[in-house]
Here is the input.
Amino acid sequence: MPRVLTDERRDLVKAIGDFCRRECGTKEQRDKLTANGQEPHNQRLYEKMAGLGWLGIALPEEYGGAGQGMVDLCLFLEETAYGRAPISGFGTTVITAAAYEKFGTEEQKRVILEGVVRGRVEAVSMSEPGAGSDVGALTCRAERVDGGYLVNGQKTWCSNAHFADHILLIARTSQEDSKHQGLTQFMVPTDAEGLRISGIETMGGKEVNDLWFTDCFLPDSAVVGTVGQAWGQLMAGLNLERMILAAMMLGVARRAFDDTLDYVRQREQFGRPIGSFQALKHRIADMATELECARLLLDDTAAAIDAAPGRVFAREASMAKLKCTELAKHIALEGMQMLGGYGYATEYGMEGLLRQTVVSTVYGGTSEIQRDIIGKTYGL
Here is the structure.
């Protein structure tokens, strides 16, 4: 089913596609931009996109953004992922910017949102060694002192902190009867005294970090929103986080599918293209059908969010995240199988797409957590 877009959105998609083909369309270009795949974010390319006005696509016009909604944001994320643009910092930046837009002071909004539009990267830190899916189990403490807070503790899996300007930290400021109470958000400069950032080596390269806070002083002005109410603030951003991840992985899934399709059309064995064999033809048909289902789910959910921006679409956003991430991983694995030995070779890029997709069913709420959320919306 063809995607029905307005002329403006069709022009946006075409412009992004043209940009990606020109700037990072070849393996040689991407290797140069990413230090042979070890650096998934290239700041120079990112700032070029900022110059085109794309990074502020969903931010308010008063801070230099374009003031567009979820549909346009998802199109941008999907197309840049399809084009394999090395801008891994964008996802966390948008998630973080939305929190400041909703709950930040005017000064915080000015610093963060205007910075995002100009091409600055932001990070958010929730996870700890003992608190992943169970966010309420956070123990990193921010103790009240004269003029502010002293932060002590360890955070982990913080994406992009090593090149971000600030970290949106979620720390415990009090112990309440409910573990979800007593959490507070803070704006932390990455060069703050008492903060140490240490990279974690992963199969995706230099993406995530451990954070160590040792008597890190944060002034009262660093508090984002209401003290002790971070849990409610986090819940208000669930639509955005899940949709960002879903849109990115839909783009990766499309790329893996198209690369696989190109290969099976051209590769010949036993005197004919391997795609003409029923075993592969049926797998291609199934993947194409699932891609259409995922796209329709994402598009419909994005449109619903734009129509009711104050509503939390817990079921639909979780479904989109679950479907798109699991499908991306499946298609990349199928692509590796159909490409045979070439799927394993870095030259063809499928192994890189697989590495990208494997973690997508873990971050931003695992597939198991998404299924649990969906089940709860049905009263289970």
Observations:
- DSSP finds 13 helices and ten strands in the chain.
- The mean pLDDT is 95.
- The beta strands are 122-125, 141-145, 148-155, 166-172, 183-189, 195-202, 205-219, 223-224, 268-269, 272-273.
